[in-house]
Design a protein that fits this description.
eight-stranded parallel sheet, 11 helices, binds alpha-D-galactopyranose
């Protein structure tokens, strides 16, 4: 360690460039202080993605108002690849991306957005395209030259590889390439990345792939798709591992892809309560008003993007209704009441029952003793004070989401 730091200081002393010194054992810091927000091609387009689509998605990101809400990454997932050239340099598919990736990056950056790509730590991606195994530094350099800002790195076709070593190798390669790139780890939670990936990536998938369904696991033989609730139950207990710069990733969103509006609202709200990266997976060029209203609700997004960066938790469950908390800056709190049953329920917000303590922020919330005002973030309505209990009606598979502010005592 001592020798390493001495070498670092010598480099620092003689170097006149601002690129990272000691380009090993380090990830790009400061890139994901709040959970990354953007869009990715996989959930809607899968293999069928072209330059034309990506450009029109980038256009829609701005014209729909999504960019203004904070969604900045436009990410191409699997199936953009062509062959490697004679020198082993990866190229894009010339039919799908005739203008090349550099020009596409310029187009996206020209809109004030950022550009993401996908690769795999093995010899091939999950869809059988060339992976980065044996080409890590070369690929990272190519991505940096193209102007990539985000890399999702998958885990298919890696039979003899060690997850930590493989992801560390690509982290070092990205750092050495000299361009700040968000590093998104995707090994589906198979080797508990929450225990080792904080210093390697900015986010890590905690589960298998999401499907467009609310509450069932679909088994397709050698792979399967998880429902929203199956993912929630796996991701929720991992809150102690998440924080600014290193997030649990319960996968890309399925809002707008076919679930009922209430299910979409619950899905989006729970992702925000879990401080999840918000990577849209629908066709944002053609959204219903209901989908747009969900994805662009700034009050709800602010729960996800809260600078404290503390993942919320399920505080208690009663009669199929879950009460979730998330501590926020300035001693504020979010409370999500999620009706996990298909039937509409009337519940009482009983302030005494809702007293809680968070052992990450070491803060307690006592709306009974300390008066708070609260706002319903889906209706936009200020609900008054916590001076008396409230009755709330919540349809099946739907949520109510509140933000609480302490009322300042006057002298
Ligand atoms: C894996 C990932 C998905 C997606 C596909 C692409 O299944 O988990 O998110 O990237 O590969 O092939």
């Amino acid at each position: 360690m001592k020798l390493k730091s001495t070498i670092c200081s010598i480099f620092a002393a003689v170097s006149v460039i601002s690129l990272p010194l000691c380009s090993y054992a380090q990830k790009w810091d400061q890139l994901a202080k709040t959970p990354p927000m953007g869009w990715s091609s996989w959930n809607k387009f899968a293999r069928n993605i072209t330059e034309k689509d990506i450009k029109s998605i980038a256009d829609a990101m701005v014209s729909s108002g999504l960019a203004e809400c904070g969604y900045v990454y436009v990410n191409i997932d699997d199936c953009w690849h062509g062959e490697r050239d004679a020198n082993g340099n990866i190229q894009c598919d010339p039919d799908k991306f005739p203008g090349g990736m550099k020009a596409l990056a310029d187009y996206i950056h020209g809109k004030g957005l950022k550009f993401g790509l996908y690769s795999d730590a093995g010899c091939k991606t999950c869809a059988g395209e060339p992976g980065s195994l044996g080409h890590e530094y070369q690929d990272a350099k190519t991505y940096a030259d193209w102007g990539i800002d985000y890399l999702k790195y998958d885990w298919c076709n890696t039979p003899d590889q060690n997850t930590k070593a493989s992801y560390r190798l690509m982290r070092d390669a990205l750092y050495a390439a000299g361009r700040p790139i968000v590093f998104s780890i995707c090994e589906w939670g198979s080797t508990k990345p929450w225990e080792w990936a904080g210093e390697i990536g900015h986010m890590w998938r905690t589960t298998g792939d999401i499907g467009c369904n609310f509450d069932c696991y679909k088994n397709y033989g050698d792979w399967g798709e998880m429902g929203v609730l199956q993912i929630v139950d796996k991701n929720e207990p991992l809150r102690h591992f998440a924080g600014p710069g290193h997030w649990n990733d319960p996968d890309m969103l399925e809002v707008g892809n076919g679930m009922a509006e209430n299910e979409d609202r619950a899905h989006f709200t729970l992702w925000c309560m879990m401080a999840a990266p918000l990577i849209l997976g629908n066709d944002i060029r053609d959204m219903s008003d209901a989908t747009k209203a969900i994805l662009t609700n700034k009050d709800v997004i602010a729960i996800d993007q809260d600078p404290l960066g503390i993942q919320g938790w399920r505080f208690y469950t009663s009669d199929g209704v879950e009460y979730w908390y998330k501590p926020l800056v300035d001693n504020e709190w979010a409370l999500c009441v999620f009706n996990r049953t298909p039937d509409s329920k009337e519940v009482e917000l009983d302030w005494h029952e809702l007293i809680t303590y968070d052992n990450i922020s070491k803060r307690s919330f006592n709306p009974e003793r300390n008066l708070h005002s609260f706002k319903n973030l889906w209706t936009g309505k200020e609900e008054g004070l916590t001076d008396k209990n409230r009755k709330v009606k919540i349809p099946g598979y739907d949520v109510a989401l509140y933000r609480f502010k302490p009322v300042k005592k006057s002298n």
